[in-house]
Amino acid sequence: MPAPPGRCPGCGTELAQGLVACPSCRRLLFADRLRELAGTARAAERDGDIGSALADWRTALELLPQGSTQHRQVLASINTLSERLDAEGGRARNTARPTSRDGKKLGAVGAGLAGVALLVWKFKFAIGFLLTKGKLLLLGLTKSGTLLSMLLSFGVYWTVWGWPFALGLVLSIYVHEMGHVVALKHYGIRASAPMFIPGIGAMVRLHQYPASPREDARVGLAGPIWGLGAALAAWGVYLAFHLPIFAAIAAVGAWINLFNLVPVWQLDGGRGFRALARRERWLLVGMLAAAWVVTEESLLVLLLIAAGFRAAGGAAPKDSDRRTFLEYAFLVAALSALSAIPVPGIGN
Q1: Where does the chain show beta strands of DSSP type E?
Q2: CA nearest 122: which of 341, 337, 339, 333?
Q3: Is 36 exposed, middle or buried (0-12, 13-18, 19+ CB in 10 A)?
Q4: Quick one: which of 18, 41, 42 has its CA closest to 30?
């Protein structure tokens, strides 16, 4: 945010840092910049560049006092454009419908993975999104902070598990975080590149925040969706070349992304749950219980308990976000099955 002038141009009141309006005369301190942003945002809308328009409106929102009429109007514009962006993207993803395929039955886990493959095929927009945006995976590596912290984490994990597994683990975490980055960029939300924290994972620091629970859910679940893509890629390499290290990377990557679905605090699952009505929350509780019975993955007990508390109490929107519900349910099914992958040489 730019610094306000030392004194209000209208009444001469001395201004403190961080103010966007004069506390005495209520004059907007960045009126010229707001007019400029509104002009470029409307021009971007006319050109169909919704992402740029959203970025301009979000910047304008920071220069308006909260609770003001202008703030509410700009926030409404952001929500309208964000919904339009999702709607247009949804139509593009649904232009081609796949035909069903039969999977081979390979025992309990094999059947689960066949179901995962069917879900992945049915929800192929997630994998397609990952592939078409693959070049953005290199974006974070151009940032010195990301690269250095990534190398530090790699070194720490190397000393514990050896370099092959450490490399796979770090890359899996990186892909997960870049899912958040791409989603944030999609909605015109400013954020940092991923920063790794050895022993904990990685994080992306937001410079702006989602304008609605729906946006927050999209950004939150984008990480596990991309992380699932990384786990599936590792599993595919294992099936093709029979290298046990890739089965281990796939299973651990799936477990980490499943853990991120715990619906508490700022974890990805907590952000997804905020957009769900109470009925959908209870449906997910039932699904988590079923997934636990089928896969016997103990982590699902933690998700089940947290989801039960969130479903039973706390605020919930009246209208649910169907896409968030489907994405969350899809991720639970896919990641639960992948985390149950038997790794050759470990526990066998």
Answers
A1: 195-197, 201-203
A2: 333
A3: middle
A4: 18
DSSP run (H or E) holding 339: helix 322-339
Give 230-267 pLDDT, tens digit per residue: 999 999 999 999 999 999 999 999 999 999 999 998 89
Name residues whose C-beta falls within 8 Å of residue 279's C-beta, 6 or more positions apart in sequence. 320
Give me the DSSP letters along 211-224: SSHHHHHHHHHHHH
DSSP 8-state symbol, 101: -
Q: What pTM does this model have?
A: 0.81
Asked if 188 and 54 count as a contact pair (C-beta separation under 8 A), the reply is: yes
Check if the beta carbon of residue 310 is closer than 8 Å to that of residue 285.
Answer: no
Q: What are phi and psi of 95, to 5 degrees?
A: -70, -30
CA distance 232 to 118: 13
Contact partners, residue 328, CB within 8 Å, separation at least 6: 221, 261, 269, 272, 273, 276, 284
* Domains of the chain, first to last: 31-90 (1.20.58), 101-339 (no CATH)
How many residues are listed for the chain in this entry?
348
pLDDT at site 88? 81
Backbone φ/ψ region at 314: left (φ over 0), alpha (ψ -120 to 50), beta: left
- Tens of pLDDT, residue by residue over 72-105, are 999 999 999 999 988 886 443 333 333 333 333 3
What is the per-residue burial (b if ≥16 Cβ within 10 Å, else e) of 139-172?
bbeeeeebeebbeebbeebbeebeeebbbbbbbb
